[in-house]
Specification:
The chain has helices at 3-18, 24-40, 45-59, 62-65, 70-86, 113-127, 144-155, 168-182, 199-212, 227-239, 257-266, 287-294, 300-310, 313-325, 330-342, 345-350, 357-365, 371-381, 385-389, 396-406, 410-432, 442-445; strands at 101-106, 132-136, 158-159, 186-190, 216-222, 244-248, 270-274, 282-284. By secondary structure, the chain is α/β, with parallel strands linked by helices. Strands 3-2-4-1-5-6-7-8 form an 8-stranded mixed sheet, sandwiched between helices.
């Protein structure tokens, strides 16, 4: 996400920060490069022009050019303007209306509307403790209604029973009546899409809108379509009126032009982003955090939130007690590796830690990915309970058996043994200082590595 733009802006601002003092021509040169980087990231030209104008006006001010760290000041200005461009403060899906609250899902065919409907329903059920009903209004696409019903079973969310021959507006009315009678808090209405915007599609959605008066109309658009996504958003907003945008496949969008242009052109906030194919892979869109990640400043708040969601409080307390005693065995290490996988793996976490964007790219270049975590866990799983609890038992013959059982090699077993020793030493120190409990020791079991401090990279990474 935003990889290309992050690389280019990082290079531009590294040059600025290396200069002891800045003059107006330095800022102008940097702004020309930023302009080009944004255009190459597929950001709409009017948005780029407005952005550069605002940044330059602030960046050439006397206070900036005469400050002790003018380069850093320019970066801060860019960060603030990026946040503003993305929408300022993040906005979430609103349920501030009389129950059942109707939420209308609209968008083109193939944008991920039905999957997004299920993702949002699961999120409302689990995070907001709401009783949710889903209803498919897609009477055109074969098996569209069955698809939503199957997703409903998977996430344990009710779906409206299918009655053949009904029109979309009638299905929507039936869904709202059923929701009122059965005490649902929210109703998610998944409309049909088309391959492109046309009047038949718009007329159908307008009929549904007028029948139920939705509290939220959420437009689902595919981030990978770039400027087309922005054009679609403009069209839907002008004809139907949308209250928010759900941007899917953000994990595959290396440029990010759609996200950066959407709010500025449509005036509508991005409320959620799809970041993967799993039913849990949807996140709230926080402009200030996204801006920080684009500029390589990390996103510690999101990392902490993810950790709080995935780390079991009881496990954290057990880990704290072990830390106080200076104990850290292979069962503990396996627990940390699993926590890390829940948080999205090494690449995801490195992208959220300030200053580690380059480490993330080093890992990708060296083909170090989450398969490494799986191999490390396989090694630990091949140990006996006694060996996991007492690593000192691991002699040469035991290492050979473990390597054979896990499909790895003795050197790999030695590496994970070294990792455990380093983690045990670090945990002992953290225990004496009253450390972080189960809040995932550095990189969920990644040992210290040359130059990074705090052990942020896998073994041998420098």
């Amino acid at each position: 996400m935003f990889d290309t733009l992050q690389d280019k802006l990082g290079s531009i601002f590294d040059k600025l920060k290396r200069k002891g003092a800045l003059k107006e021509p330095d800022v102008d040169l940097a702004m020309r490069e930023v302009r080009l980087a944004l255009l190459e990231a597929d950001v709409a030209l009017p948005v780029v022009k407005d952005f550069i104008k605002k940044v330059r006006e602030k960046a050439v001010g006397r206070q900036v050019l005469r400050s002790v760290t003018p380069g850093q000041m320019v970066v801060k200005i860019v960060n603030d303007e990026l946040t503003s461009m993305l929408g300022g403060e993040g906005q979430v899906i609103s349920l501030a209306a009389a129950a059942p609250v109707p939420l209308l899902m609209v968008g083109l065919q193939g944008s991920g509307k039905t999957t997004s409907t299920a993702k949002i329903a699961k999120r409302l059920k689990e995070k907001d403790n709401k009783k949710v009903l889903m209803a498919s209004l897609d009477v055109r696409r074969p098996a569209a209604m069955q698809q939503l019903a199957i997703l409903g079973q998977q996430i344990d969310v009710a779906t409206l029973p299918i009655i053949d021959g009904q029109m979309p507006a009638d299905i929507a009315k039936r869904a709202m009546t059923a929701a009122k009678l059965q005490g649902f808090d929210a109703v998610l209405l998944d409309t049909a899409g088309r391959l492109h915007v046309n009047q038949a599609l718009m007329a159908e959605i307008i009929a549904v809108r007028d029948a139920i008066n939705p509290h939220e109309t959420l437009l689902v658009v595919d981030a990978l379509t770039g400027q087309d996504a922005v054009n679609v958003a403009q069209e839907f907003n002008s004809q139907i009126g949308v209250t928010g945008i759900v941007l899917t496949r953000m994990d595959g969008d290396g440029r990010g032009g759609a996200a950066l242009s959407m709010r500025a052109i449509t005036g509508k906030p991005i409320k959620l982003v799809g970041v993967g194919e799993k039913i849990d892979d949807v996140e709230e869109f926080h402009p200030e955090r996204v801006a920080s990640r684009i500029l390589g400043m990390g996103d510690v708040v999101s990392l902490v939130e993810k950790a709080a969601e995935t780390i079991d409080a009881e496990d954290a307390e057990i880990m704290m007690q072990k830390m106080k005693k200076g104990r850290f065995d292979f069962d503990d290490l396996r627990s940390q590796l699993r926590q890390m996988k829940k948080l999205g793996g090494m690449g995801s976490i490195l992208g959220m830690i300030p200053g580690l964007g380059k480490a993330q790219k080093q890992m990708a270049a060296a083909n170090v990915d989450d398969k490494l975590l799986a191999r490390q866990e396989a090694i630990i799983n091949s140990m006996t309970p006694k060996e996991r609890g007492n690593p000192k038992l691991l002699n040469a013959s035991r290492k050979k058996r473990i390597a054979a059982g896990s499909g790895t090699s003795v050197p790999e077993v030695n590496k994970i043994l070294k990792m455990q020793k380093q983690m045990a030493t670090m945990m002992k120190k953290m225990g004496k200082k009253g450390g972080m409990g189960g809040m995932m020791p550095p990189m969920g079991g990644m040992p210290p590595s040359g130059g990074m401090g705090g052990g942020m990279l896998p073994p041998g990474f420098k």
